[in-house]
Write a structure and sequence with these properties.
The chain has 250 residues and is of the alpha/beta class. It has helices at residues 17-24, 37-46, 62-86, 123-130, 153-163, 190-198, 206-218, 234-239; strands at 2-6, 30-34, 53-54, 57-58, 91-95, 102-106, 114-120, 134-138, 140-142, 148-151, 168-173, 179-180, 183-184, 187-188, 223-228, 246-248.
Length: 250
């Protein structure tokens, strides 16, 4: 089984390469986790909420959590599931609240209602896979005291990959991997990653991506790869294990 994470920007059109790749992978047991950060930012601005980030993660107060749930579990997830279904790959949009799929645990009090995946109940996923349906998961989950927690999509994908015993994790980005002097590293170890973060080469939104890959490996996932989702065939190649993007190795 493979967990594929794509950004909400992939929904700019139904013919987006990442979506087309996922739809073409008939016969593969896939779990699709999606983001939607730019749309959360846009809707936050519409309702007068200031957006703040710390180390690539969105600071989430109660109002921002409401916006994130509306955007991710509503607009983006359903649009993605519809696009896949229209391409002949039946899909259903879910979030952690649906059928008790997963709970959320607070990540850092300074970030507010930002969490990470806690307990996972795969019952609904198994039912969907058995029926030939692709689960499309929004990184929104119920946490302590009835609060809704927003989870970074890369973090959620890694945590779900570990909890479900996935063989591989594929993160579709807007760059071809970890870039050094303009070129993507074909392989990256934990030591390489820490060195490049300290040097400021890996920064911003790429930090949670590489950390998610390393956490997946530490949790037993065999392969973790960052690829450019805008390149036709890149996601499909990473899913089947071809050498593309930056592959993280133990």
């Amino acid at each position: 089984m493979t967990v594929v994470k794509i950004g909400g920007a992939a929904l700019q059109g139904r013919a987006d390469p990442a979506i087309t790749d996922i739809a073409s992978l008939a016969g593969h047991r896939l779990l699709v986790v999606h983001g939607g950060g730019p749309e959360i930012t846009a809707w936050s601005k519409r309702v007068g909420i200031e957006t703040q980030f710390v180390d690539g993660r969105r600071v989430t107060d109660p109002d921002t959590a409401d916006v994130a749930e509306m955007v991710l579990a509503g607009r983006v997830g359903r649009a993605l599931a519809h696009a896949l279904t229209a391409m002949g790959s039946p899909a259903v949009s879910l979030c952690g609240k649906d059928a008790g799929l997963f709970t959320a645990e607070p990540l850092d009090p300074a970030l507010g209602q930002v969490g990470r995946v806690g307990a996972v109940n795969p019952t609904v996923l198994e039912a969907m896979w058995s029926a030939g349906i692709v689960p499309v998961v929004a990184p929104i989950g119920p946490g302590p005291h009835g609060r809704t927690f927003n989870i970074n999509g890369d973090d959620a994908a890694a945590d779900l990959a570990v909890a479900l015993g996935a063989d591989a994790l594929v993160l579709a980005s807007d760059v071809p991997g970890v870039l050094v002097d303009g070129r993507a590293l074909p392989h990256c170890t934990a030591q390489d990653t820490h060195r490049l973060i300290a040097a400021g080469v890996i920064k911003g939104g790429m930090v949670p991506k590489v950390q998610a890959c390393l956490r997946a490996l530490a949790g037993g996932v065999r392969h973790a790869t960052i690829v450019d989702g805008s390149v036709p065939g890149a996601v499909a190649a990473a899913v089947v294990g071809d050498a593309i993007g930056t592959k993280f190795v133990a």
